[in-house]
Specification:
Chains A, B: Keywords: FAD, Flavoprotein, Oxidoreductase, Redox-active center. Chains A, B: Belongs to the class-III pyridine nucleotide-disulfide oxidoreductase family. The structure is a homodimer of 564-residue chains. In chain A, 27% of the residues lie in helices and 26% in strands. With 564 residues, chain A is of the alpha/beta class. Chain A has four domains: 5-123 and 255-326, FAD/NAD(P)-binding domain; 138-252, FAD/NAD(P)-binding domain, CATH 3.50.50.60; 339-458, FAD/NAD(P)-binding domain (3-Layer(bba) Sandwich), CATH 3.50.50; 463-557, Oxidized Rhodanese, domain 1, CATH 3.40.250. The first copy, chain A, has a five-stranded parallel beta sheet. A five-stranded parallel beta sheet of chain A has the order 9-16-10-11-12, covered by helices on one side. Chain A has a five-stranded antiparallel beta sheet with strand order 22-23-26-25-24, with helices on both faces. In chain A, helix 1 packs parallel to helix 8 (310-326). The longest helix of chain A is centred in the middle third of the chain and has 17 residues, at 310-326. Chain A is globular and about 90 Å long. The interface between A and B is large, with 106 and 106 residues.
Chain lengths: 564, 564
């Protein structure tokens, strides 16, 4: 038998990774990558930062760690991998084990034979099916040419108003990039919240922050794009509002590009992603599929999900690259949908299940807490972190975590991702041994303190109430005592202003006489982050008050305006 | 029965934590903290940063998160906890369940009865038993008064030369603080390396960095302190060298302060720490002990260790505080000795076992790898990380990790700490789902890439050689081909200069004719970080060369000078 012939369709992230790993496993295989675009191995997650001007040298998006552009010559010389760019694979002939392709420059077609095939065709950006969507000035931020287009707009500095459609990860990253380009932005989101991987309450905190930078419109979609002479002039919303703009970036999600696979008769999963097993093998044993075009299992729910993340694409490429040479020897287990994005000075991240998703999936017996604290001591200029943790009530198993704030979000999300991957229960986390020194964390790390709060709640030591629940109670004018237990100077500086009474924690034991005579009356206590709120609740409970609640995350996690 | 009487000896970190937790569990208990020093709840890990001028307001070391100084009034008002500062407990009378104490201001003595007692007496800083140790100008950095003394020196700006004795965590932190105070430093360490929680090779990389800031002398101890009129003038070393200086900071470690416990007949462990069980209970069921005065189990070796870390002290305080109220309901499992320190622009951290320690403890069947890479993409201004990972060869279980560099060390150490706590095998780590976006990490996180290298090595895909082993081979003039596979421009910029030949990876397949005729001749390949070195090794192996090795961590991890 001669050298193994390997064809990879797709040259962005997963494809080149699979090809490179295959080469490392077999020096003699004949490996060819077909790539429809003109570039290879693009760091597509870096596009927003190129557009936003974090760096100016476009070739950095295409460089190896050693600073060499990964072009056809690089792939041949360093990796002995053939690459055919600007070449579209139009059909997979599984019977003959060949692919048909078209050279997009010359229009010539051809066929190439494979022993093993890898499909890494990525995803397609959704576009709203509304009038005017073909106007000049409307783009996505998915391809390098999209990035080039937007970077040119930044450099020219002519366009002053833009609309970003879609409040997901890409929309948020695009928004930052364009804002840094000096463009006035309106963000449109069809749903009642941004970033649906967050629970509503957490998303609202992000929204509050975003609104300090750009205009945000929720629960409103695009009805049409309005133009003159083929050029975008405004976006018309479903409620009739017209927003004048010269640029619209559409970021309403992506769908798996399953066309070739579907036409070749490979099984497609319920999410639209190509069906693969844990070896990244499709229903044809000679064909593997990886990256944004596949669906993979969620490690908690065991249900298939479409998880178009650059890191997973790379990991899947490594698995497929080894398996197609060595037989199915390594597995890709799945995802817990860990994600993060930068939003000006904030990090916003999540791993595992949100409360909303958990409830939707039938996890009814769950517990949640919100913890707000600095990431480092105040004397080391610590920044705020707000974490929402979700755990299974009976087993104590950690199901998910969301973290936002100007603090070290990335580390927190990584810690929880490891906890979920390791199937930690809350009790495993309360005495975790994490790296502590004041330049890096609090003595009790924010993640561990979050686990402490959850442990206390699971033990029934206290009850809490979310900001949203409290807002509802206020609306319904429910009789309750609202208790801010901070110091008077803190109260002067900022307060919720919802009819609360100030009794500093240090005075509470002496001022119990001011509490309601009816000991079953609801009392809601808080402080800046609700550590003192918790202590106040314990004091009141010990004195016979039976209906005391702590406001989750205190004033720090209050997502509405506050009195100053 | 009346209110439970709880006495806590020690008011720094663990003690107040236990007292506060006990209060939260029981509003009616009578709780008293005895504290020998004048302050309470000092953030002692923050002393070096106060000395170094990271912040100027000393009271921040004593503040609650809300910015209130935790003095006696605070403890009484907010927590209903009695505190007796400047009061030394001189004896524990276990029979009568009383402590005897002396008011250090008035000299008056007294007795107080307890139902439950907590010993949180901390540790004592070691001092070298040499002549002159009582001279003025010699200090430790253990107490707040030490910090005050050193901060005064910084503010006065008179002292220009200091010696720091001890290259452990505290020595390193002190060194940074004094350097920032504009003082010229010489660091003395008795052992052949700094930071013994690191393996020698990793420590040498730190040493190389430290030497760009201060003078480092290894394998030399203090013979005596020389003075004039009772004031320090020089440090005399064991080899006779005299180092003129006006200040010497001794940081040669701490020993558990077990005096009271020992005199009371409580069992003391083999490390000198008070013996406690997983409930933090001593051999007397009415006495708990926590913090730097105890010994705790190592979670990997199951052997007792003295682990004087501020985070563990706090966690133990929480456990003891709950147990002494509720009966023994919560456990403190032990430590994996996770630690980190800041060193100018570097982070230096470790968790689990080092290779040296593992070998000492009889783990002979281990595998190690070194990975050097950026923490984030180059276009996001990523910084270097160097990780050494230690795993059990047969089970693949992760035993330890050491991380150093200007990159995000804290997150990396946290990830490995979670992996070890979760008993991850290397295979569990290779497809971890960590938060990825270019502002935060590489597409394949540095930790995951480190696991990939380990997996490849455990599979026997390649062999590597440490910088030290290579240095030895060079000394012995062993016949070998040294191969740098980077690009010519990289080679021009910096190279090892040890007789290597440059063959860029992209040319290697065409220049195999330049390889030794004897295919069993040893070939050692590297690049900047040894990713290309690995690829070169695979090419050579595929072409029949049987003795190819990759230099661990490449040029980035070479701890000696390089040619420029």
């Amino acid at each position: 038998m001669g050298a193994k012939r390997i064809i990879v369709i797709g040259g962005s992230a997963a494809g080149p990774k699979a090809a490179s790993k295959a080469r490392r496993m077999d020096e003699n295989a004949e490996i060819t990558i077909f790539q429809k675009a003109s570039d290879l191995s693009m760091a597509s997650c870096g596009y927003p930062y190129y557009v936003g001007g974090f760096f100016d040298d476009r070739s950095q998006l295409l460089c190896s760690p050693a600073g060499v552009v990964r072009d056809a010559k690089f792939f041949w010389n360093a990796k002995k991998i053939n690459t055919k760019v600007l070449t579209e694979v139009t059909r997979i002939d599984r019977k003959q084990k060949k692919v048909e392709f078209t050279d997009l420059t010359t229009g010539k077609t051809g066929r190439a034979a494979y022993d093993k095939l890898v499909i890494a065709t990525g995803s397609n950006a959704r576009k709203p099916p509304v009038p005017g969507v073909e106007l000049e000035g409307i783009t996505t931020l998915q391809s390098l040419s999209d990035a080039d287009y937007l970077r040119k707009i930044k450099d020219e500095g002519v366009i002053k108003k833009a609309v970003v459609i879609g409040g997901g990860l890409i929309g948020i990253e695009t928004l930052e990039a364009l804002h840094l380009a000096g463009i006035h932005i309106t963000l449109i989101e069809l749903l009642p919240q941004l970033l649906t991987f967050l629970d509503k309450h957490m998303a609202r905190l992000v929204e509050k922050y975003v609104q300090t930078k750009v205009n945000v419109i929720l629960q409103n979609g695009v009805a049409s794009f309005l133009g003159e002479n083929g050029v975008l002039k405004a976006v018309k919303l479903q409620d009739g509002t017209e927003i004048p703009c010269d640029l619209a970036v559409v970021a309403i999600g992506v769908t798996p590009n399953n066309k070739l696979a579907k036409e070749a008769g490979l099984a497609i999963g319920e999410t639209g992603g190509i069906l693969v097993d844990e070896y990244m093998q499709t229903t044809d044993p000679d064909i593997y599929a990886i990256g944004d075009c596949v669906e993979i299992p969620h490690l908690i729910t065991h249900k298939p999900v479409h998880a178009p993340f650059g890191d997973l694409a790379n990991l899947q490429g490594r698995v497929a690259g080894e398996n197609l040479i060595s037989g199915n020897v390594v597995k890709f287990p799945g995802t817990i949908q860990t994600g993060i994005c930068k939003l000006f000075d904030y990090g916003v991240g999540s791993t595992g299940l949100s409360e909303q998703n958990a409830l939707k999936l039938g996890y009814t017996d769950i517990e949640t807490v919100v913890n707000a604290s600095l990431d480092k001591p105040g004397f080391m200029n610590g920044n705020l972190l707000i974490t929402k943790l979700i755990a299974d009530k009976r087993s104590g198993k950690i199901l998910g975590a969301q973290v936002i704030g100007a603090g070290d979000v990335s580390k927190q999300v990584a810690i929880w991702a490891m906890a979920i991957k390791g199937q930690f229960r809350v009790d495993d986390m309360v005495n975790a041994d994490l790296p502590y020194a004041p330049p890096f964390s609090l003595a009790i790390d924010h993640s561990i303190a979050t686990a402490h709060i959850m442990q206390n709640k699971l033990k029934g030591l206290f009850k809490d109430i979310s900001a949203e629940q409290l807002k509802d109670k206020l609306k319904n004018k429910e009789p309750m005592l609202l208790l801010d237990v901070r110091n008077p100077n803190e109260f002067e500086e900022v307060r919720l202003g919802i009819g609360e009474r100030l009794i500093p924690l240090g005075q509470l034991r002496n001022r119990l006489g001011e509490m309601p005579e009816d000991k079953t009356r609801e009392i809601i206590a808080w402080c800046k982050i609700s550590l003192r709120g918790y202590e106040a609740a314990l004091i009141l409970q010990a004195n016979g008050y039976t209906n005391v609640k702590v406001l989750e995350g205190g004033i720090a996690a209050w997502p509405w305006s506050r009195e100053k």
